[in-house]
Amino acid sequence: MITRFALAGLGIVLAAGLTAAAATAAQAPTERRAAYQPTLKASKTTVVAGQKLVLSGRVKPAAKGGTVVLQKRIEGRKWAVEKRLTMTKAGKFRYVDKPSTPGLRSYRVMVPKAGKVKAGTSKPVKVTVLRWVPLTQLAVRAIDGTRAGTTVSIGGKQYANSVVSNAGAAKGTIDWNLDPSCTTLRTRFGAGDDGDADATAHVTLTGDSEQLFSGQFMLTQSESRTFDVSDVFRLAFAWSSTKAGVLEPRAGAIATMAGPELLCAI
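and the corresponding structure tokens:
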């Protein structure tokens, strides 16, 4: 005959068994979910082509000597392996890239499965790569009395891909619509060596009708300038030539925007 004490003991044993089973069941999903958790950061969000870009991060849990696969995706393309890295004892990794293709790109890292730890992938980081391109490579919207893409000499120094006044013209204009990714313009304004010694070149640069620069130059004179064109859509160069003692424009000076370059993601 089963006594009260025997039944009570059996209840305790059954309860302990159920508790252990429940604990095991609760732990199982945690073990199945265990995965590497890599993080990644870039030293810059915008970089000029050819410059250093440092990509670094950390992996948890750390596994000294473990593999970290750095992947890259240039806008419009698929993910591709950039480099296989090795993490330190602390789970850290580092890579230096020198991107050359302009435009938007993304990086991420993936840590392969190892033992009971599942593979893990970081969130992507985005980087915009800019490069210097000649302004004269852009399509001209309107032009009058001006040439673009020619070589000019100022003070004996030559500048390729320049914008200059036409010989025999007394004034002129040229303008372009800039790509939204363009951030900076650098150029040199001056008077070309083929102009007359008694002539003066008057030049003006505007961005969306706002004056960015205005100056006048005689033979061999010039000035180098850099402009922020992040918010400029319509860039326009206007010029005129005058002679000593004459108020109205007279041909003679070679108004010049020498070797203008834009920093863009194109």
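(Above: one complete record from the training split.) The radius of gyration is 34 Å.
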